[in-house]
């Protein structure tokens, strides 16, 4: 079983608040929502990074701010990942399906994607 839990975080001018998740069986699905404030969301690339147990931080999915730029998912999540952003609501949603043990780790909503910008978190969720 996988558990997604919200963890307390830092307070900053840029605030990213994550919600969603829950206890899921292997093969299950989960939806994570990031609500942002403190910056112009529609002008910022956004993404989700993850850190597996004993591993480094890696980008899981991202969405650029350029008109027509397509959201992307990492190779390990491709076909099981859906990323959507709502610039009016300043939100970013990550949906994962077909959950696998390799999906375990802590997932961070981040301002900046594909290595651009500075990742800052106020709340983070984790697969345990």
Proportion in β-strands:
over 45%
Mean model confidence by pLDDT: 78
Q: What is the rounded Rg?
A: 13 Å
Task: Kindly provide the name of the CATH class.
Answer: Mainly Beta
For the record, give the distance between the C-alpha atoms at the N and C termini, rounded to a whole number: 9 Å
Strand order of the largest sheet: 3-1-11-10-5-6-7
Multimeric status of the protein: single chain
- Broad shape: globular
Tell me the major beta sheet. Answer: 7 strands, antiparallel
Report the structural category.
mainly beta
Tags for this entry?
mainly beta; 0% helix; 11 strands; single chain; 128 residues; 4-stranded antiparallel sheet; disordered N terminus
Topology (elements, then pairings):
Elements: E1 2-7, E2 15-20, E3 23-24, E4 30-37, E5 46-51, E6 57-63, E7 72-73, E8 81-86, E9 91-96, E10 106-111, E11 124-127
Antiparallel strand pairs: 1-3, 1-11, 2-4, 4-9, 5-6, 5-10, 6-7, 8-9, 10-11
Q: Overview of this structure, please?
A:
The strands form two sheets. The protein has a seven-stranded antiparallel sheet with strand order 3-1-11-10-5-6-7, with no helix packed on it. A four-stranded antiparallel sheet has the order 2-4-9-8, with no helix packed on it. A hairpin with a 5-residue loop joins strand 5 and strand 6 (57-63). The chain has one domain (2-120): Immunoglobulins (Immunoglobulin-like). It is built from no helices and eleven strands. It has strands at residues 2-7, 15-20, 23-24, 30-37, 46-51, 57-63, 72-73, 81-86, 91-96, 106-111, 124-127. It is mostly beta strands and 128 residues long.
């Amino acid at each position: 079983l996988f558990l997604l839990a919200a963890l307390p975080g830092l307070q900053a001018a840029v605030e990213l608040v994550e919600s969603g998740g829950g206890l899921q069986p292997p093969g299950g699905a989960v939806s994570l929502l990031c609500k942002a404030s403190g910056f112009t969301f529609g002008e910022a690339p956004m993404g989700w990074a993850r850190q597996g147990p004993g591993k480094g931080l890696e980008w899981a999915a991202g969405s650029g701010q350029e008109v027509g730029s397509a959201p992307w998912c990492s190779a390990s999540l491709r076909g099981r990942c859906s990323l959507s952003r709502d610039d009016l609501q300043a939100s970013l949603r990550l949906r994962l399906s077909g959950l696998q043990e390799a999906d375990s780790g802590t997932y961070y909503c981040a301002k900046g994607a594909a290595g651009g910008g500075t990742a800052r978190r106020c709340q983070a969720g984790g697969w345990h």
